[in-house]
Amino acid sequence: MTRAIQDYYPERFSHCFGCGRNNPHGHQLKSYWKGDETIARFTIAPMYSGGVPGNAYGGMVASLIDCHGTASAAAFACRAQGHELGEGAEPVRFVTASLTIDYLRPTPVGKEVTITGRLMSLEGRKVRVALALAAGGTVCARGEMLAVQFRE
Ligand SMILES: CCCCCCCC/C=C\CCCCCCCC(=O)SCCNC(=O)CCNC(=O)[C@H](O)C(C)(C)COP(=O)(O)OP(=O)(O)OC[C@H]1O[C@@H](n2cnc3c(N)ncnc32)[C@H](O)[C@@H]1OP(=O)(O)O
């Protein structure tokens, strides 16, 4: 099976609540390449209810979009440098500088959603990513992220 983008994160960056493989309490989101775009699949548990039965709370939606966005930024930057994830180059590390979300319609719990990422622009340490979260083919939320390569 193909490794997820998050599986390439160094150990010290793998404790994120949203996507860290080493955080047993977190969501452990996994993002993958799909052609020139990225995709993640996730089923939101009913405990993340937004108060209306059957619908997720907005923070959960933002969390999934956030983590998929930073993973996408790392993958886009890596490919733009002419290599693929895991090809031995020093990993690029991105954090969210800005994230806007438009909540278009309610996001269901207990049903698989897909989160997709598309590269908008890449300029120095800055990567802009367009994101969408959909359920059953219907887009529930759109996001736009500015991810900045972290300086150690
Ligand atoms: C080959 C294998 C590859 C593997 C890859 C491994 C990758 C591992 C990656 C990741 C691991 C973790 C993954 C999970 C992450 C989940 C997401 C989060 O929750 S992240 C937590 C929430 N975010 C923060 O806490 C950030 C807090 N903010 C900061 O630390 C700084 O503000 C930072 C780093 C974002 C920028 O600070 P500066 O000092 O480094 O740089 P300055 O000069 O301020 O900004 C750089 C450029 O960005 C613009 N910029 C910064 N913030 C902006 C904003 N809010 N809006 C617009 N532009 C902004 C600036 O104007 C500047 O642009 P100009 O270079 O001048 O063109």
What is the CATH fold-level name?
Answer: Thiol Ester Dehydrase, Chain A
CATH homology superfamily name: Hotdog Thioesterase
**CATH-derived architecture:** Roll
The number of distinct β-strands equals: 6
**What small ligands are held by the chains?**
ligand 3VV
Helix coverage percent: 10-25%
Main pleated sheet:
6 strands, antiparallel
- Spatial gap, N to C terminus: 32 Å
Q: Nearest-angstrom radius of gyration?
A: 15 Å
Number of domains: 1
Spans with pLDDT under 50 lasting ≥5 residues? none
How much of the polypeptide forms β-strand, as a percent range?
A: 35-45%
Q: Kindly name the structural category.
A: alpha+beta
Major sheet strand order: 1-2-4-5-6-3
- What is the H-and-E element order? EEHEEEE
Name the shape in a single word: globular
Structure description:
By secondary structure, the chain is an alpha+beta fold. The chain has one domain: Roll (Thiol Ester Dehydrase, Chain A), CATH 3.10.129.10. The chain is built from 1 helix and 6 strands, in the order E-E-H-E-E-E-E. A hairpin with a 2-residue loop joins strand 1 and strand 2. The mean pLDDT is 94. The protein binds ligand 3VV. Ligand 3VV binds next to helix 1, strand 3 and strand 6. Its EC number is 3.1.2.2. It catalyses: decanoyl-CoA + H2O = decanoate + CoA + H(+); (5Z,8Z,11Z,14Z)-eicosatetraenoyl-CoA + H2O = (5Z,8Z,11Z,14Z)-eicosatetraenoate + CoA + H(+); octanoyl-CoA + H2O = octanoate + CoA + H(+); hexadecanoyl-CoA + H2O = hexadecanoate + CoA + H(+). Belongs to the THEM4/THEM5 thioesterase family. It is found in: Cell projection, Ruffle membrane; Cytoplasm; Membrane.
